[in-house]
Fold this protein.
Amino acid sequence: MIIACGEALIDMVPGRGEGFLPIPGGSPCNTAVAAGRLGAPVAFLGRLSTDFFGVILAGHLERNGVNTDLVVRSAENSTLAFVRLEKGKEPEYVFYTEGAADRSFCEADLPPALPPDTDCVFFGSIAMTMEPVASTIEKLIRREHSNPKGPVISFDPNVRPFMIRDREAYVRRFEGWTASAHIAKISAADFDFIYPGLGPEKSLAKILSMGPRLAVTTLGNEGAMALLARDGGPLLVRAPVVDLPLVDTIGAGDTFHGAFLSWLHLNGKMSRDALADISEKELYDALYFANRAASIVCSRRGAEPPTRAEVEAL
């Protein structure tokens, strides 16, 4: 089972005129839904409000095959993220998080042990820029990383610069989180913020030197690239996207991450040993599967990940 850690929130997306429509979102939530729709067993670990937005979020997870047994419910409000979309630009966000339920996820909310069938834990996004949730997830990740029989840990920072007041302090923590991950999935836009001017290939090599087995970067319409650590030197693999009409890019990176992890799980590669032995063809197939899923979500409005049948039909 794949476990998502972090925020589940309401994206307020542009509607008619100056109005906004409430849509379930949040990077870990979107990634979990993508994995669920693609047929991988997945659960969500975090805190959700008991307000009516929290009810919407819990229902959204459950309808898409995401187990909510590890979710803690509380009376704090749900986080709201207002989105502005402009053609040819990355989506812009304004977050309302103060005192919100997902932000308030604390050490007491952590289970003493993860379910025995857990083979992957993923984390990242704005949850790692807020307290106490960031330190809570950090504690969980370090605990699971130190277990030699523990799950694969996957990290997607999904950087939102306006949520980061001290860039240098964030980069230091980012490198610590990266060192505790086996997979690091980082977009080209993230690299521009974290290591400006270094470029994707050198950035991937830098990430790999910190300890992950696999570093992956998404490059927009140029596809995706991965660097795998192995005996004899790292293996670089690239895979293209599929050319579909672009509606918006909301949820594209989250869908890619969920699809990539799903491919690994569904093809028997979701363990630390199996990840070390993945072949060049298998890595290409995983990247291309994830790219197809991301291409489909970009052809739709909002974060609406595809099903496995839709990806395989493309």
Remarks:
- The chain has a mean pLDDT of 94.
- The first strand starts at residue 2 and ends at 5.
